Amino acid sequence: MRAVHLTSGERIPCDAVVLTCELPAAYRLLGRTPRRPARLRHSPSAVILHAGTDRTWPQLAHHTISFGSAWERTFDELTRTGDLMSDPSLLITRPTTHDPALAPPGRHLHYVLAPCPNTAVGPTAAAWRDLGPRYRDRLVADLERRGLDGFADSVQEELLVTPLDWTRQGHAAGSPFSVSHTFAQTGPFRPRNLVREVENVVLAGCGTTPGVGVPTVLISGKLAAARVTAGTGSRPARARRPRPPAARPRTGTGRCR
């Protein structure tokens, strides 16, 4: 890898490249195909309702998990049958609990997250254009049945995020949670942060080792830095020609060459 070409036409010479995008996008930029005995499986996705309301409910903490009763069936729906949760478990977050300044006086923010199947096993991204608003109404009805009476009438501003939005943002299988942590994709079996036959490209982010979550993604960045500086000793740094002092790290979209 000698340079990165941005969509703006700019060419940035480089000694090494760290790719933090989704794995399919990273391999597409490199013109490579990952070698695995089975295709990658992605985590379930999520529907998120951001609601600005004119009231709140005192029983809500900063984070409240509202569990459904059909626990085992819900896992099958999310990962196997591709159905929407028939008895949903929801994460309800109320950030104005500890920071009232996030909303105007007398107003509150609520964030409702409902896991849903990704687009590889459930409804397609396009299907969520019509499905999204209907599912939003179902979730609001569930919230009211579980004690948040008057939630529907309290909403003054809202933003609904569905797998269609995740897909538009470049998330594989319409999921913001990347490659799932099945046995065959965890620990030593998770996609490595090195790319076969490309010695100065390293991967980082939730799709590679060690996995999904803020702490683990930060660790992946540390591992990538160690690879670039040859601190891990698993791949020797190539001999480099003298170059002018390096510019500050750049980010952007484009292609690698």
List the helices and strands and how they pair.
Elements: E1 3-6, E2 11-13, E3 17-19, H1 23-30, E4 45-53, E5 63-66, H2 71-81, E6 90-93, E7 108-116, H3 128-145, H4 151-154, E8 155-161, H5 163-168, E9 194-195, E10 198-203, H6 214-228, E11 254-256
Parallel strand pairs: 3-10
Antiparallel strand pairs: 1-2, 1-11, 4-7, 4-8, 5-6, 6-7, 9-10
Describe what this molecule looks like in 3D.
- This protein has helices at 23-30, 71-81, 128-145, 151-154, 163-168, 214-228; strands at residues 3-6, 11-13, 17-19, 45-53, 63-66, 90-93, 108-116, 155-161, 194-195, 198-203, 254-256.
- With 257 residues, it is of the alpha+beta class.
- It has a five-stranded antiparallel β-sheet with strand order 5-6-7-4-8.
- The longest helix has 18 residues, at 128-145.
- The chain is elongated, with a radius of gyration of 22 Å.
Summarize the structure.
Belongs to the carotenoid/retinoid oxidoreductase family. This protein is an alpha+beta fold and 257 residues long.
Q: What general form does the structure show?
A: elongated
Counting DSSP E segments of at least 2 residues, the number of strands comes to 11
Q: What is the helix content? A: 10-25%
Largest β-sheet summary: 5 strands, antiparallel
As a percent range, the share of strand residues is 15-25%
Q: What is Rg? A: 22 Å
Compute the number of helices: 6
* Order of H and E elements: EEEHEEHEEHHEHEEHE
* Span of the ends, CA to CA: 6 Å
Biggest sheet strand order reads: 5-6-7-4-8
Pathway: Carotenoid biosynthesis
Domain Amine oxidase: 3-228
Biased composition (Low complexity): 248-257
GO biological process, one term: carotenoid biosynthetic process
